[in-house]
Automatic annotation (TrEMBL):
Annotated protein name in UniProt: Ribonuclease 3
EC nos: 3.1.26.3
InterPro entries from the UniProt entry: dsRBD_dom, RNase_III, RNase_III_dom, RNase_III_sf
UniProt gene name: rnc
Entry keywords, A to Z: Cytoplasm, Endonuclease, Hydrolase, Magnesium, Metal-binding, mRNA processing, Nuclease, RNA-binding, rRNA processing, rRNA-binding, tRNA processing
Organism: Banduia mediterranea
GO MF term (any one): ribonuclease III activity
Main localization category: cytoplasm
CDD domains: DSRM_RNAse_III_family (cd10845), RIBOc (cd00593)
Subcellular location: Cytoplasm
Active site per database record: 42, 114
Enzyme class: hydrolase
Amino acid sequence: MSHRRLTQMLGYEFRDPEILERALTHRSASSGHNERMEFLGDGLLNGIVGELLFHRCPKATEGDLSRLRASLVREESLAVIGSALKLGDEMNLGSGELKSGGFRRASILADAVEALIAAVYLDGGFEQTRAMLARVFEDRLNNLPDPASLKDAKTRLQELLQAQARPRPEYGVERVEGPPHKQRFHVHCRLPDSDEIEQAEGSSRRIAEQRAAQLMIDRLEP
């Protein structure tokens, strides 16, 4: 299969087309699939995006840089990139994945993006990979969110209370419902100095606590 449109979008022409073909081959299609390349691409992605952020955000703290990088390289973000590159039209998928819509599944698209990064590295080296990623991430790097907005709700609530010289919030599980494979956790978030309480639920204790913390933030910052 010719991948002319894809290579034009990447801004990189492969010397060895077989490397690109392997990067676009899901395990459902062939034993010569892209899983090992995903591993390599993941490492390159984290390192290069980290370096791009380091130079672009000279005043950002380590924590801010970590949050920005996480927002750029998480599965959802990579899946958007994979969709923009129309990887679903380029990939080699088994018949089962094709029938179940695997060509638009976020995890498959994100994995293929990582494999593509590895393919450019194996074919052209580090500088070509860095240049390709700088192109692919250019718009996102030019429109970075406020790092504070990327903090999770529990962290933001704790910082809000610390700024007011108030004690840390307390979390507790009220009850757990449902069978082991489908549990619902009901938790509370309590402010010990005012006895204010917010309750929330979720499929895990972590998710429920984050939701309760967000409700408490909404209460404190209406």
